[in-house]
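Risk register update: the risk of archive-format incompatibility is retired. Evidence:
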Amino acid sequence: MGILTADPLASVVALLKPAPSIAKLVTGGGRWRVERTNMASPFYCAMVEGKCLLTIEDGAPLVLEAGDFVLVPEVFDFTMSSINPPPSGAPRLPLETGPGTFRLGEQDAPTEVRCLVGHCSFASPDRELLVSLLPAVIHVRAQGRLIALVQMIQEEAQSDRAARDMVLGRLLELLLVEALRSVESTIAEPGLLRGLADPQLALALRQIHADPGASLSVQGLAAAAGMSRSTFFDRFRGEVGSTPMEYVAAWRMAVAKDMLVKGHIAMAELARRVGYGSVSSFSMAFSRHVGMPPGAFATRRQAA
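Archived output:
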């Protein structure tokens, strides 16, 4: 999946660089609760059978039913429990019953819940920006394609086949795209999905993502969207959550960071590809945005 593409959703997912971490089958019976804190990682869950409660940080509990899928692009604290959970403060650790298989609750109780749970990581050097463009929580119902993708990830994660990590990376990209495409734009908070749901704003967003090195201006983007400058500016800020040129600058820096980490490109060529007429103007903009010159950033990231 290429980064420089006219499809903004595809380019953001590709730049996130999702990498596999944990994929497991979790079953539960009776009363149970599991808590996780200080995770700072993407989390997803596909419900295969039964119902359970998922509470993300201090939010209201979500009731997950068979066929549901939930994705949290960045979760720190969460609790999963049976619909009738045990008393708070006494969580039990899951019991590993086999490779990638865990049991929650009473061991002799009938299995009432079966779900596929996974964690991954985003290897992008600008993951904070990219995650900020996505909904905080994605919860969709009756999405067989998502359940099937999670099952494929689970099977691949437990295998030892050739090109396993590459296949997992592609499956995770597909999972993210499918999950984001399933979100109803009317319930998404301001961000990329809300912007793409507006046919006129989508034209401008595609222009930005297709060629961040082009001469981009509010006036030009408004013309591409078929709107007046002021109407475009206000609608873009309201739907996407930033001004058009703030978005352009942030996307250019995200692409630049990716190129710097990969290396093997002259600084003048990199500057041109992200819309700057000289190395000095790019270096000044990069330092202002990132807090260090591009050369220092590249050295630090490549040494990590």
